[in-house]
Amino acid sequence: MPNRLRFAPSPTGELHVGNARTAVFNWLFAKKYGGTLVIRIEDTDRARSDRRFEDLICRNLKWLGLDWQEGPDCGGPFGPYRQSSRTAIYARHAESLLEKGSAYRCFCSEEELGRQAREARRAGVTRECPRSCRKFSAREVAQRLKDSQPPVIRLRVRSGKVVFQDLVHGEMTFDSAVVGDPILVRSNGMPTYNYAAVVDDGLMKISHVVRGDDHLSNTPRQVLIYEALGWPLPVFAHLSTILGPDRTRLSKRHGATSLQHFRDRGVLPEALLNYLTLLGWAPAEGQNEILSPEELVASFDIERVSKSSAVFDAQKLYFFNRHYLKECDSSRAVEWAVVHLRQEGLLQEVDSEVRQWIGLVVEAFLPGLDHLSQISQEAPQLWSFEAEEAVQDEGVRQVLSLPGAARVVDELRNRISHEERDLVGEWPSIVQSVKAASGQRGRKLFHPIRVALTGRDSGPELDKLVPIFEGGSQLELPHPIKDCRARINEFHSAMLSRGLIPSCSH
Ligand code: GLU
Q1: Taking a C-beta distance cutoff of 8 angstroms, is the pair 134, 158 a contact?
Q2: If I label 494, which of 267, 395, 407, 427 is the partner at 20 to 30 A Cα–Cα?
Q3: Does residue 49 line the site of ligand 1, with CB under 6 A?
Q4: Please, what are the domains in the chain?
């Protein structure tokens, strides 16, 4: 039997990391063991389903680097691939189950049963339908169809054990008594999830059902439906639950968990793919966890999928992202920066000169970033240099209190004041001569230089910032950028006016 996998999202919201992880494992399985991946849209909940979410989910899966061979967007031999277009198929199979006697019409009111079940739950017991409709004769059924509310169709569950194979959990055995007689088709004609999923998985010839273990308790019902339809069972693989850092089930309480959120923040798809794969799976011992999509496929092994819950830790995701940001082609980061700095109103026309300058900005800031959207938090500091404010900053004041700091700033200013000096080309020799004249080195040299140049006590490497300030000041930007000379002179004056540089040195 060929390997056929499926990812079956309900388009009732954005794709979140838990579902994305399920999609990734299905994709890895199909790639690794050779197979077809099907996307099936489970949109039987018409009130909550929205085509907008379906599009978003598919776009996000593509962005993540996944591909599939059959689905609502590309068709395929087992379509349609949206459950809302398959109602006639579900009805046909329900009819044949009724004819065989494997299912029956139940006239108990769904509301009444729901009320009784809720009451029973409050009392700490479970209460299923009393199954009294099982024994109606054909005549009684015909009579009730005329007199009563439309019925639901229920599976006539056999007694005994339900057994299925799970690649993660091993052989699973349940007693059929625990599942009641599940509803297959509701009174409004809509199929239930368990029934539609089985009809589709069967007709779509799905060989492996890989999904989250929140569906483990549904599986005995589904196995009984397969049996009733006379179809072979697929192999199941139920992936462990994803938890938040506090080890409770990952949810909105833990902050944003949608894929789109991380995408908007500038997390690279290869970082997310790599990280999602490690939620419930680990490479062989001694193998690096940083794996390209090709390496992930090569090393993936369904046997290594873990039963125990995985913790989603955004910090670890950012750790992966930092790695991929360093590796990525800088043009991706430049594009990102252009879009975001434009949104901030800091850029307007972006010609090749501006783009080249943004290249320097990206190169300077990238090593300190968790995700690209931090560029729009960090880069604006290039525009915002106010010496008067800077000298009052707590961190800057600490730097200036270092012994010899004032002397460093003073010597620096002396050296940059000749207008004709090319600060970019001569920067290393300027720093060397400040060092010689002030007698300071290490952080006692570089920190005072940094605060005089940037007004801040931390940031990208100075050697990278000097060409950015010099180049940026020459560009036509909506807001000007001060060059190094202006910065150092202003900072020096602010120190002088506050008595932070003894005026006798002038
Ligand atoms: N639509 C279901 C969900 O999103 C899919 C369950 C399954 O894979 O069978 O949870």
Answers
A1: no
A2: 427
A3: no
A4: 1-75+240-327 (3.40.50.620), 329-378 (1.10.8), 380-505 (1.10.10.350)
